[in-house]
Amino acid sequence: MLTTHPAPFTLDQIGTGTARFPSGVPIPTHTDQMVDPYFKSKMPKEHQVDCLLFWPQLSGTYPGLVLLHDWWGLTGQMKDLGARLACEGYMVILPNLYGRQGGMVTASDDVAAALLERQNEAQVLTDINSCCEYLNTRIITKKNIHGVVGYGMGGSYALSFACQRKRLRAAVSYYGKMVASKELLNYLFSPVLYHQAGKDAWATPADIEQFRCTSTEYAKRVEIHLYPEASQAFCNEMKPSVYDADSSTLAWERTASFLKACFQGT
């Protein structure tokens, strides 16, 4: 078994909470709420993004991370990953990307595939961007010092979002599909770390090779690591048939090092 580096914080030093805010419009601040006597009774027109929050409780300011769940929804495993990332020294926000579908969570691959099919990517990317804007309202979060980490479906969104938000500092994609058009990679500004499952029939080797070639052509900072014997979702302990403990541990260590390098000096 591979050994892991000691995180700067332990789980009992991590605070947790929830957040709810409108998507695609300015985030209401605490002051806005205080001066508006009708704030609590207003029926918002915009979609409301429901999120979980994880942060180190030691006084200070921290880079922000948006954690994007896989196609099974906001599962207990994703919540554990949120707390674990916070232990690395980040303010983590974990949005429910299925909010427009009732916040569904499933263990069925068929149901998950149907949920993904009904997703509107443009709306989801707007929700993710609003998560970054919400982080900017938090006193303990460094302003516009943000990264995104996604798994599977969330890993696909992480790549697309990295081609959309210029101020993003880091993007990590675990076995996500490539962006719809390779030309979009010309708008990629942040460094990217991609974890490739060698036995993945969803994000195919041909797709990843094109991603590699295009990122080289456009001189983008993309780091790809291959886990030859791993399958799609190899980091998901809730899927024993595909979970690969050694590959998962190695990918986590690489993620932690990558994020630390991207945020160093901020």
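Second entry:
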Amino acid sequence: MLKITDLQKTFNPGTVNAKVALNGLNLSLDDGDFVTVIGGNGAGKSTMLNAISGVWKPDFGTIEIDGVDVTNMPEHKRAKFLGRVFQDPMKGTAPDMEIAENLSIAARRGTKRKLVWGIRKNERAQYKELLATLELGLETRLSCKVGLLSGGQRQAITLLMATLNRPKLLLLDEHTAALDPKTAAKVLEITDKLVTENKLTTLMITHNMKDAIEHGNRLIMMHEGHIIVDIKGEEKKKLTVEDLMNLFTQASGKEFTNDRAILS
């Protein structure tokens, strides 16, 4: 479902501020893979997601989604393949619009638009049913402005919007990092449910080693723009945080120094 081949990206090339963000990155995801991604600051995690999304073009290498080469495809055109949830709960929704209106925009994504009278009755019933699965009481608040909701509620709605049309690839960019631990756990529970029920191929960046181990069927660790650890199946299930830190040291020759990840 995703194939990245020898991806390279350097920011500010030829200057004193040159930064190699991706350094020969290779990654293949099978249909239905749920891959967690962890690494230190500057490892290239978000740069990889931005390259997949088309935020910027790589200097070298290719990106294929479901057999389609999207390397040179503009961001708005490859969006039909993707669903994405950002770290900031404010980014995924329109705060001045109702919950139902936000869901309606997501449902119509990638389709031809025409003038119709508001949201149809059957659509509202569908959205109510979908919101009920989140178990947050939002099914009774379809007319509520999204800007009035908590960060966790907004992130849950963003997840629902990102998965509504079953994208080829779901990208989660530290989507629980801005939430308190209890809310983050609930959003991760919703994530697991949506990914499993819709059989979505997913890449989830996290700073939390415990979450990286507990969620998904595969774990990759990045360092200096490429993958240094790739674990799946039974081997992943047996991992501990200490194991993961030791694997990083063995693969990179350095101590893992991301305090945020260690403290989490």
